[in-house]
Amino acid sequence: MTTEEFEVIKRLKWACRRGMLELDVLLEPFVERHFLGLSPAQQQAFERLLKEDDPDLFAWFMGHAPCPDPELADMVALILERNQP
């Protein structure tokens, strides 16, 4: 991992610290394990996802509501798929 990649991961891990533990346990491991392997478009979608409000993220990840943005919905699905035990 380059210094630049390390700084990106560090910044994103900080941004993944949300007000809800349920989101923390989904987002932070995804960044650590998978972010650098994403395409540039997927990386941008992930960063956009982090700008959303916690209640919306929670609803999308728990399946309580559909994500209205198709690109973000794909990212939610990818995060859920890759965080399977």
Key phrases:
mainly alpha
- Report strand %: under 5%
Number of H- or I-type helical stretches: 5
Query: Could you give a short account of the major beta sheet?
Result: none
The average pLDDT value, as a whole number, equals 95
Radius of gyration: 12 Å
Order of helices and strands: HHHHH
Count the beta strands: 0
Q: Give the % helix.
A: 55-70%
Structural class: mainly alpha
Question: Residue ranges: pLDDT <50 for 5 or more in a row?
Answer: none
Question: What is the 3D form?
Answer: globular
Distance between the termini: 25 Å
Briefly characterize the structure.
The protein is mostly helical and 85 residues long. It is built from five helices and no strands. It has helices at residues 3-15, 21-34, 40-49, 54-62, 70-82.
Q: What is the secondary structure topology, with strand pairs?
A:
Elements: H1 3-15, H2 21-34, H3 40-49, H4 54-62, H5 70-82
Task: Tell me what you see in this structure.
- The chain is mainly α and 85 residues long.
- Helices cover 69% and strands 0% of the residues.
- It contains 5 helices and no strands.
- The chain has helices at residues 3-15, 21-34, 40-49, 54-62, 70-82.
- The radius of gyration is 12 Å and the shape is globular.
